[in-house]
Amino acid sequence: RNLSSADMGRQTMRNYPGLIDSVMTYAQNCVASNRPDDKSVENCICILHNLSYRLDAEVPNKYTQLNHMARSVYMDKTLTGCFNSRSGKMENDEYGIPLPEEDYKPKGPSWLYHSDAIRTYLSLMEHSKKDATLEACAGALQNLTASRGLMSNAMSQLIGMKEKGLPRIARLLQSNSSEVVRSGASLLSNMSRHPVLHKTMAHQVLPDVSRLLSFQSGNTNSYGEIMTSACYTLRNLIMSNPHLGKSYLTSNMLNNVVSLCRNGSCPKAAEAARLLLTDLWSNKELQSVLKQQGFDKNMMGSLAGTTFRTLSSRF
């Protein structure tokens, strides 16, 4: 576990024959025998968490060549005007490239992004009571969904749709451990970047994420990261379905977002909160909800600054 946290150790352990296979198989056997809280399980999952860090960038995999193909598709479509020029980025769901079939019998690093591994993490999320194990499970999934390529898209769909893991991830947001909440919130933020998941996520995790923004206290070391992730997730999901999302814009939650905008000790969370409010105000249906809560153009201008003034010229 200690060795896997270092860059050289991580690379060496990934390449060592049989090591990942043994660690994964041992963890799965413990889950199958109803021993989710063994210290050895915690160590195994922490190892797998560490070995999945920067996996898409450091280890050639089934998605590497597809990412090159996807960029070619993106460039072709950009040149012919098929992409929205405002986005300025590739959207995974617009690649139009089929995802690869996974190995029937994974070996070595391919274990780290196999559906059997995903199921193991989700099973432990449901049955383990150890915070360190829960954090490591969410952290491994967070690593697999962190890139901007096809692996993130495929892993997010596998977790959220095929394996129906969203309720178990949402449950992490209710933990008494700020580190568990941080990992769960970061994972949901990664997954919310993919439009194909928006409808499913809006129905299954919006209540928990909005509750996080409404009631999370600022007395933990992870507060800034948690709020940043929650703001980005809320922004992605509400803007994809404003009619559904407006019911979550409570006065309590909006007041907390306003406080975040003014929080000089958490600059990333403050920026995420400003972007959230700016996008909400840019939608006429959501803007009416904000106005009912006492927001006006002057208030928005003072909170969001230049970002808001650029957008407000459209109205």
Description:
The protein has 315 residues and is mainly alpha-helical. The chain is built from 18 helices and no strands. Helix 6 runs antiparallel to helix 7 (131-144). It is elongated and about 60 Å long. The model is unreliable at 73-96 and 306-315 (pLDDT under 50). It holds the Pfam family Arm. One of its GO terms (biological process) is cell-cell adhesion. It comes from Nothoprocta perdicaria (Chilean tinamou). Belongs to the beta-catenin family.
Mean pLDDT: 85
Radius of gyration: 21 Å
Order of helices and strands: HHHHHHHHHHHHHHHHHH
The low-confidence parts are 73-96, 306-315
Assembly state here? single chain
What percent of residues are in strands? Answer: under 5%
Helix and strand content put the structural class at: mainly alpha
Helix content: 55-70%
Q: Care to count the β-strands?
A: 0
Number of helices: 18
Alpha-carbon distance between the termini? 55 Å
Shape: elongated
Chain-wise SSE layout:
Layout (H helix, E strand, L loop, with lengths): L6 H9 L3 H14 L6 H13 L3 H4 L3 H18 L35 H13 L3 H14 L5 H13 L3 H7 L5 H14 L6 H18 L7 H18 L1 H4 L5 H11 L5 H16 L1 H9 L4 H8 L1 H7 L3
Helix pairs in contact: 2-3, 2-6, 3-7, 6-7, 7-10, 9-10, 9-11, 10-12, 11-12, 11-14, 12-15, 14-15, 15-18, 17-18
Primary descriptors:
about 325 residues; mainly alpha; about 65% helix; elongated
